[in-house]
């Protein structure tokens, strides 16, 4: 197909497609003349993943290039691919928890002891410097600084529900075999469902509050 | 206690306490001289709730005053108080889903049909214009616009898990009898736990992916 058709099929404007070609995010098409090239289905799938990583996941062009390179190197290994697309950091978050991430040669930082205890309790096998560990630690610290008596054990029932949520998430990916398509779906479902999951909790709180205290 | 002690106990700077007094968020203390007043435990609790609504929930001073007024009018009605503090809109979100909120005289908007179907399926009794309904609708629309085949029925198992999460949330409030304290705890636990719950989902995804696809 021509670049105009590629744009229509992927929902990415032609100028943006050309930008991705120049930046090496998208491999070149097969030249059919000095100014035109032919693109295939692989380009459509790759473009949709690029769009998911940049527009939805919030990655920079450079970070997206790194993820795509790693994805193509591990295309046969679903766990690696999922880890690569879900573990990549959005551009704006880079500095936020940088200390914990850069701690590779210092061993685990003292601040993540709570998160480590929770992970051990759940039997979860995750990378030592997962950004989400820092979020758990920071939340507990914030609650404590506001005078709320709350420790990691209070999170265990929430973690058990998160485990069931993650099982749902991965079940929804299991029927896709193409690694690029699976990576795209993982990004979309993980990132885009986040506000909806929080909204469902609020709605459920209102319903449960009405059930307990309503008349 | 003096205003300095009130500041220390609540963690709110003296200048901010004075600002809240001027704005009528905090009732005046009992005057002990022309320039000094005596404050009590009720002031400490009230200040902690104000801080939770403004600094954590992101409400404006005006919206906080409205919530506090409504809370004191319904102090004996836990469901009303929870609805008031959890349903109040942060300052930055006011315009975002305004159309759905202002639709009181137009009946439910067409766009919330998905959310209504989900609520009916779950048997959840929530207010017609709950902002969280709009979030659910928008998420489904975004997924569809990106070519992901996803409808409200796919959210039912997530809603079932949200229901169990909300039960945990309300259990954690149940041992508090003072309505101001309960309102404060509701805001802190609802808002501050949000990033941690999303982080737990990411960690659980990584663990579940390792279990399924790891070696």
Describe this structure in words.
Two copies of one chain form a homodimer. Helices cover 63% and strands 2% of the residues of chain A. Chain A contains ten helices and two strands; from the N terminus they run H-H-E-E-H-H-H-H-H-H-H-H. Chain A has helices at residues 3-10, 14-22, 41-56, 61-73, 78-87, 98-101, 113-122, 131-145, 156-171, 179-213; strands spanning 30-31, 37-38. In chain A, strands 1-2 form a two-stranded antiparallel ribbon. In chain A, a hairpin with a 5-residue loop joins strand 1 and strand 2 (37-38). In chain A, helix 1 (3-10) packs across helix 3 (41-56), helix 5 packs across helix 10 and helix 7 (113-122) crosses helix 8. The longest helix of chain A has 35 residues, at 179-213. Chain A is elongated, with a radius of gyration of 21 Å. The interface between A and B is large, with 75 and 75 residues.
Our Rg estimate of chain A from Cα atoms comes to: 21 Å
Largest sheet of chain A: 2 strands, antiparallel
**Strand line-up of the largest beta sheet of chain A:** 1-2
Mean pLDDT metric of chain A? 81
Q: Which bin fits the share of residues in helices of chain A?
A: 55-70%
Tell me the overall shape of chain A: elongated
Largest interface: which pair? A-B, 75 and 75 residues
**Strand content bin of chain A:** under 5%
SSE series of chain A: HHEEHHHHHHHH
Secondary structure: number of strands of chain A: 2
Number of helices of chain A: 10
**How far apart lie the N and C ends of chain A?**
63 Å
Oligomer: homodimer
Helix/strand/pairing category of chain A: mainly alpha
Low-confidence runs of at least 5 consecutive residues of chain A? 94-108
């Amino acid at each position: 197909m021509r670049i105009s058709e590629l744009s229509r099929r992927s929902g990415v404007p032609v100028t943006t497609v050309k930008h991705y070609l120049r930046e090496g995010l998208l491999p070149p098409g097969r030249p059919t003349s000095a100014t035109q090239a032919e693109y295939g289905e692989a380009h459509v799938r790759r473009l949709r993943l690029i769009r998911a990583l940049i527009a939805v996941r919030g990655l920079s062009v450079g970070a997206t290039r790194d993820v795509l390179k790693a994805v193509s190197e591990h295309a046969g290994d679903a766990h690696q691919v999922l880890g690569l697309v879900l573990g990549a950091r959005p551009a704006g978050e880079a500095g936020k928890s940088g200390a914990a991430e850069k701690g590779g040669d210092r061993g685990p930082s003292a601040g993540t002891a709570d998160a480590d205890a929770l992970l051990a309790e759940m039997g979860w096998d995750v990378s030592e410097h997962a950004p989400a560990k820092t979020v758990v630690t920071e939340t507990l610290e914030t609650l404590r600084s506001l005078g709320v008596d709350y420790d990691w054990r209070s999170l265990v029932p929430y973690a058990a529900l998160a485990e069931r949520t993650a099982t749902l998430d991965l079940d929804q990916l299991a029927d896709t075999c193409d690694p690029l398509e699976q990576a795209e779906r993982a990004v979309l479902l993980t990132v885009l469902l986040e506000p909806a999951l929080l909204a469902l909790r609020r709605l459920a709180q209102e319903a449960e509050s009405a059930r307990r205290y309503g008349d």
